[in-house]
Amino acid sequence: MSETKKEHTIEEKQYLVRFNADTKSHLTVLDSDICLTKCPDKVCTIFCPAEVYKWENIRMHVGYEGCHECGSCRIGCPHQNIKWEYPKGGHGIIFRLG
Ligand code: SF4
Ligand code: SF4
Predict the structure, then answer these.
(1) Are 17 and 96 in contact (CB under 8 A)?
(2) Which residue, of 6, 16, 33, 44, has the greatest Cβ tally within 10 A?
(3) Distance (Å, whole) CA 86 – CA 26
(4) Residue 44 CB–ligand 1 contact under 6 Å
(5) Is 48 in the pocket of ligand 1 (CB under 6 A)?
(6) Signal peptide location in the record (predicted)?
(7) What average pLDDT does the chain have?
(8) pLDDT per position as a tens digit, 10-31
(9) In the chain, how many H helices and how many E strands?
């Protein structure tokens, strides 16, 4: 007998993670002018699965607390304008299994 595999929504998957946010961001947009003048598509707002990057008129808001530490922004920014480090030990994403 075949078993039907249940599809999970992104909200359900996100329920399986918790965050212990540091007070200091581990993500830095180095130069907002580059975002403003050289990156019309603001691609970090598209490729980040956690929607960490939000463009606010003339600058990038970085909601680092919800970062999934996937590392995509290390290579995804076409101008190498994001400095990415792992959060300090004991901080960042915590995966809950089951
Ligand atoms: S992808 Fe890079 S340059 Fe473009 S908006 Fe994001 S941080 Fe700025
Ligand atoms: S590491 Fe992944 S989740 Fe975190 S800000 Fe970069 S793209 Fe978003």
Answers:
(1) yes
(2) 44
(3) 6
(4) yes
(5) no
(6) none
(7) 86
(8) 666 666 677 777 888 899 999 9
(9) 4, 6
CA gap 29, 59 in Å, rounded: 9
| Ligand 2 nearest atom to the CA of residue 82, by list position | 6
| Span between the terminal Cα atoms of the chain, in Å | 24
State the distance from the centre of ligand 1 to the C-alpha of 39, rounded, in angstroms: 6
**What's the CA gap between 78 and 37, in Å, rounded?**
13
pLDDT given for residue 10 in this prediction: 66
Does the Cβ of 36 fall within 6 Å of ligand 1? no
Residue 38 CA, closest ligand 1 atom number: 3
Chain segment 41-58, per-residue pLDDT in tens: 999 999 999 999 999 999
**Is residue 25 packed enough to be buried (19+ CB in 10 Å), middle (13-18) or exposed (0-12)?**
middle
Go through the domains of the chain in sequence order and give each one's CATH number.
24-95 (3.30.70.20)
